[in-house]
Amino acid sequence: MKRVAVIYGGWSSEREVSISSGTQMLRAAEAAGYDAVGIDAGRNLAAQLTEAKPDVVLNGLHGPWGEDGCVQGLLEIMDVPYSHSGVLASALAMDKLKSKAVYRSAGLPVAEDKQVTRAEAAAAHALDPPYVIKPVNEGSSFGVLIVREGTNGPPQDLLDESWHYGDYLMAEEFIPGRELTVAVLGDRPLAVTEITTLRDYYDFDAKYSAGGSRHVIPADVPEHITAMAMDFAVRAHQVLGCRGATRSDFRYDDKRDRLVILETNTQPGMTPTSLVPEQAAFAGMSFEELVAWMIEDASCRR
């Protein structure tokens, strides 16, 4: 029987989300017949894994250290096969500016952007409003600020003492319209989901709180947009060098019929409200089957 260590938790701002993802995956791995053990990842993760002696690691970490190539590098050194993407793909996808540079090189449409420091973004508008400020290396919409048209000045929240999302940011053109997402397993796109919310935007609470958002699957968009989004998601997965499961997010301006890719998530959430399990179910794959697929797809190659 294959021994699987499900790593989750960690110490990033996405710790609680990761615990939820990891707990769900641990239960599914056990139900699928694996000898599964859960590990709340600490900075002594190498020792934790040595004690657990897994054949495979199922990575349920989110955010910095667990999603950006760091843990992946450790697992490569330890020669333990692991789920999801490798070192380089994880690092590229986690950096919003670098991943967009890769998208551009592949001819994928992106929104206008500019790299700024926190001080620069607070001192003057980085772009003509409306635009969005995003931390370069965070997920789950942490630190995202929308600067609306007609706003008197740049966002002063950036100067708050509680800010802990880094000093290097991306200012990005705000694309009006609709939020779409596509999950990819290997080289297979699953579906297109439209995400709607009554909040200002698809923020942390909208993503993870019960009733915070509504998922429409399949998205009620023109057929050519469905085909385009699925094609772009696969191309993004491939050009970044990803493996396993990913999820790419898009904005669709239906008034201008414009679709742009925002980012690719190499460690998609596996919580009860998460999009990848929902798309897998739509494609005929149960949660247990999805987790088993991730385990069997695990490898140890950079």
UniProtKB/TrEMBL annotation:
Catalytically driven reaction(s): 2 D-alanine + ATP = D-alanyl-D-alanine + ADP + phosphate + H(+)
Start and end residues of each ATP-grasp domain: 100-296
Positions bound to Mg(2+) 1: 249, 263
Pfam family, one: Dala_Dala_lig_N
UniProt enzyme class: ligase
GO biological process, one term: cell wall organization
Annotated EC: 6.3.2.4
Name listed for the protein in its UniProt record: D-alanine--D-alanine ligase
Lineage: Bacteria, Pseudomonadati, Pseudomonadota, Alphaproteobacteria, Hyphomonadales
Gene assigned in the entry: ddl
